[in-house]
Amino acid sequence: MQKKFHTKEAALQKLRHYCGYQERSHSEVQQKLWELGVRRAEHDEIITSLIEDDYLNEERFAQQFAGGKFRMNDWGRKKIYYALKEKKVSEYNIKKALKEIDEEDYQKTLNSLAEKKYESLKDEQYLVRKKKTIDFLMQKGFEPELITKVVKKLADPKSSEEEG
């Protein structure tokens, strides 16, 4: 099958729709340009045009991506960080997006996930239960030092009462 090549104008139209439908990263738009068969020489011009017309905004993308993954998928900061890195978002925009996540909501989500997971493993032996809960939270992308605190509180309720 012959690959269809798009003119600059046609590609720009398609990409406006693509970016208008949902926030996109620069790398996703770059990938789409290749898929549309746009000549390499025209990529920068098209991307510049999308930025100028506010269809493409990396900072906005990073903030929406981070917020969405946290709220909808219960992802921790580390998992969001690496997902944004994979999408070639700048370090500056990643840090800015992660700062937008409310600390109180973040802690509540972590506590809630930990409690549910720990509770679901009540038939397991104590150390297995603890390890599986920690592994689950690590896989969700939460920071090890936060996980340790939360799981310690769940597993050893007496020790955390003495501290606080």
TrEMBL record:
<dbReference type="Pfam" id="PF21981">
    <property type="entry name" value="RecX_HTH3"/>
</dbReference>
<feature type="domain" description="RecX third three-helical">
    <location>
        <begin position="104"/>
        <end position="151"/>
    </location>
</feature>
<dbReference type="GO" id="GO:0006282">
    <property type="term" value="P:regulation of DNA repair"/>
</dbReference>
<dbReference type="Pfam" id="PF02631">
    <property type="entry name" value="RecX_HTH2"/>
</dbReference>
<comment type="similarity">
    <text>Belongs to the RecX family.</text>
</comment>
<dbReference type="InterPro" id="IPR053924">
    <property type="entry name" value="RecX_HTH_2nd"/>
</dbReference>
<feature type="domain" description="RecX second three-helical">
    <location>
        <begin position="57"/>
        <end position="98"/>
    </location>
</feature>
<dbReference type="GO" id="GO:0005737">
    <property type="term" value="C:cytoplasm"/>
</dbReference>
<dbReference type="InterPro" id="IPR053925">
    <property type="entry name" value="RecX_HTH_3rd"/>
</dbReference>
<dbReference type="InterPro" id="IPR003783">
    <property type="entry name" value="Regulatory_RecX"/>
</dbReference>
<comment type="function">
    <text>Modulates RecA activity.</text>
</comment>
<dbReference type="InterPro" id="IPR036388">
    <property type="entry name" value="WH-like_DNA-bd_sf"/>
</dbReference>
<keyword id="KW-0963">Cytoplasm</keyword>
<protein>
    <recommendedName>
        <fullName>Regulatory protein RecX</fullName>
    </recommendedName>
</protein>
